[in-house]
Fold these 3 entries.
Entry 1:
Amino acid sequence: MTGKIKNYFAGFAEAVRKGDRWTRSSLLLFGAGYIGRGQIIRGILVQLIQIGFIWFTFGFSAQYMMQLPTLGTVQREETFDPATLAKTVNDYDNSLLILLCGIIGIFFILTYILLFFQNTRRVYGLQKRAEAKEHINSFREDLHTLINEKFYLTLLSLPGLGVLLVNIFPILFMICVAFTNYDKRHQPPTYLFTWVGLENFKTLFTSSQTVTFGYAFIRILVWTMIWAFAATFTTFIGGILLAKFINDRRTRCQKLWRSLFVITIAIPQFVTLLLVGKMFGDYGIVNSICSKIGLTGFLKSIGLVGAGLSYIPFLSKPGWAHVMVILINIWVGVPFQMLSATGILMNIPNDQLEAARIDGASERQIFRKITMPYVLFITGPSLITAFIANINNFNVIYLLTSDYVSTNMKFANSNAKEPDLLITWLFNLTNNHSNFKMASVIGICVFLISAIGTLISFARLIKGNREEDFQ
C-alpha cells in the first residue's frame, strides 16, 4: 500500500516536471489539458466541476468552515419593538448548521485535492499518448466504454454516492458531536454549543453521586454482550434442532409443521412483540393464568416474587426482564433460522452421511462430527452478522420493555434502564432527553465494538481453506 502511494505521487511529480504547456495549464484550469488534446466535451465538463467546487466553497461552505473552531459566537436574541408591536431577531449563528456544513465543506476540499492530483496525472497520460502518436478517445468513445467495458463503474457510482450521504456523513457528524456539549441546554438555533474535547468520554466512565454514566455503561455493556451471545446462539441452535426434527424421516406431517412456523415469520415482528409484551405485562393474560393456577403464590413462597406483588414481574423487574426477553426472542427468531438451516441440511453430501453410518456412527455422532461443522462453515458469515445485529437489536428490547421503570437511582440518573442495550439507551438519550453529546459517545462505542468484533471474527473464520473438507 505504501509503495502504491509513493508511485502515485511520483507520477504526479513527473507530470508537473515533464508536462507540456497543456498539462501544466491544467494545474490551474482542470479542463485546459483535455481541450488542448481535442477532448472538448470532457474538458468543459471537468472545468464545470472545478467552477462548481469554487462556487460552493467560497460562496457557501467557507463561512461555516471559518466558524468551526468556535461553532458560532452570536446567540439568538429577540427584541420587541413597541412602535411596531413586532419581534425582531438578530443575525445569529447556528452551531448545528456550522458543524454540518463545515464537515461537508472539508470533505469537498479533500475531494478536490484528490481530483487535482488525479486530473493532472490523467492529462499527463494524454500527453504521453499524443507524443507516442496513439489514438486518443473521443468523448463518445469514453461514454461507450462506460456503458460497455466499464459498466460496473457506472452501476457503482449511484450506490457509492448513497453510501456517502446516508452512512459516511452521519458517522462523521456523530463523531464530531461527541466532542461538543450538544444537549437540551444547548439546543440550536436558540442556544449555541461548543467543543469540549474529551470531556464526554470522561463522563461516560465516571461514577459519582451526581454523574452515574460509568455505573450504567459498564452494566449495560455487559448485558448487551450477554444478550447478543444468548440471542444469537439460542435461535441458531434452536433453528437447527427444529429443522432436524421437521426433516427427519420419522416425523409425520412435515409440511404442516413447517407451515405453522413459517406463518410466524409472515407476521410483522413489531406486531408480535407488542402483543407478547401485553400478554406478559403485570396485569396481562399470562399473569392472570399464573395467579389462577397458583404459580404466582408458589413463586412468592420460594422468594422469586416479592411479597408485596400480586403478579409475576415478567417484564418489569431486573432479572425477570433479562430472562424473558431472551426466551421471547427464541420464539420469534427460531422459525427464520429453521428455514435457513433446512436449506443447508438438505445440501449436506449424502455420501459422507452414508459413510459415517456404515462405519457405525450414531446419529448423535453424525450430528456432532458432520452436521454441525458443515452448518457452521456455511453459516459462519451470517452468524457473525446476526451477532452484530443483536448488539443493535432495537425492536425486541424496546418494544418489550417500553413500560419498564427503573427503581435504581443510578440507572435513572443516567436515563437508563436495566434491560437496556447500548442502542436503546442511545435512543432514549436522544429521543426523550436530547442528550446528543452522550448519545454520540455511546454510538462511537457501539461502532467500535461492532467493527472490532466483525474484523476479528471474519479473520478467524476465513483463515485457511476448509472447502475441501466438505466436498
Note: Residues 2-197 form one domain.
Entry 2:
Amino acid sequence: MLKEERHKTILNEVALHNRVLLTDIAETLDVSIDTVRRDVKELDAENRLTKVHGGAIALGFINNSARNDNIYKLEDKIIIAKKAIKLLKDNSVILIDGGTTCVELATQLPEQLSLTCFTLSLPVALELLKKPNVEVIFVGGQLSKDAQISIGADAVHTLSNIKVDFGFIGTGYVDPVFGLTEFDYDIVQVKKAVINASKKTVLLSISEKLNSQHRYKTCDIGTIDTIITELDGNNLLLKSFKNQNIQIL
C-alpha cells in the first residue's frame, strides 16, 4: 500500500473514532507498528492529527470549544443533537457524556430551556456554562488527557449516587449483536456508570459507527433505550437495531 493510501486510511479512522491505537491501525493496514508510527509522526507534523502515546487523536477531539472544520461530520452531529433536544422538557435532569457529538448536544441546547445537567466532560461543561438556564454539575475525578473526561473510582462513585431522567452517551463502536464497545477500559467503566445513573439511556452516534466493534464491552445493545443517528428512522441500516426493541430517532 502506498504511503498516501496509508495516510488516508489513518486519517479516516482517526476522524471517525476520534482516537485510535497504533496497533489497530497496523492490523487494519497489515503493516508494521514502526511503519504506522512513522506515518502518524508525519501526519502530526503536518497538523492533520495529534500523535499521543500509543496512538493518535483527531484535531477536533482535542479542540472541541472551537467551531471549525476539524470536527468530523459536524453537520450530521448537529442533526443528531437537534433530534436529542426534542426529548427534553423544562426542569429535566440529564447527564451528558464526552465526545464531539455530546459536545454538539450541549452547544445546540436552546437558551430558554431550563435543565440540571451533570457531565464528566470538560468541553461539554464549557459549552453548558454558556446556557443561562442550565445548572451545570461537573462530575470530577482523574482527568483523561486524551478524552478530556473524568475517569476512575471517584467519577464512578459520584455517578453511583445520582439518577437522571436521560443519560446521553457517545460510543466508539456499536453493533446490534455485540452492543457498545471501546478500546479504552477506563472509559468503559465510566460509561457503564453513566448508564446505571440514567433512567433512560440515549446513544448519540453517526451512522458510520454502526455495525462496528472493539475489545471492551460497555453494554448489550438492549440496555440502550434510544439510538439517535443522522439517518431517517426508516433507513435500512437501522433495521437490525429496530429488531432489538429500541426507539430509533
Note: DSSP finds nine helices and 15 strands in the chain.
Entry 3:
Amino acid sequence: MRTKGLVASFVLVSLGVIAAGCGAGGSSPVMTTIAEKKVGENLAVAISNPEGKLKNGEQEIGLKFTDGSGNPVEISAASLNFNMPAMGSMAEMNDPATLNTTSTPGEFAGKVKLQMAGEWIAQISYEGEETGKTTMEVTAY
C-alpha cells in the first residue's frame, strides 16, 4: 500500500515538473510598456519589459515599432542604448541593449544591464520600412 502511494506521488511530482518546464520554455514573458514615442507622421516606438519599469541591473527588454493604427511596421534592424550624461565627477555612462528580432515584424527582444538607478536617455536607431533615430527619457528604479 505504501509503495503505491510513493509511486503515485512520484508520478504527480514528475508531471508537475514536466508541465512547468514546458510552460516556461515555450513562451515569452508578457511585456508592459515603459515609454512610448511617436516618431514622424506614422510611426511609434515603445520600450517595454515584464515589470513595466526599468530597474538597476540586468533585465529583459522589448522594442516595438507600430504605425498610427497600432499595426507592426517592418523594421529589419534596431539598436537601443541607454545613456546617462556625465554629472559632476561621474563619467558619462552607456549601457547598450542586445536585441534580437522576433517572429513579429517590428518587434525586438533582448537584455540590458543598467549600471545604476536614475534618469537615462534611451537612444534608438532603426532601419527598414522606415529609417531613423530618436531618443526618449526614461527612469530606472
Note: The helical segments are 2-26.
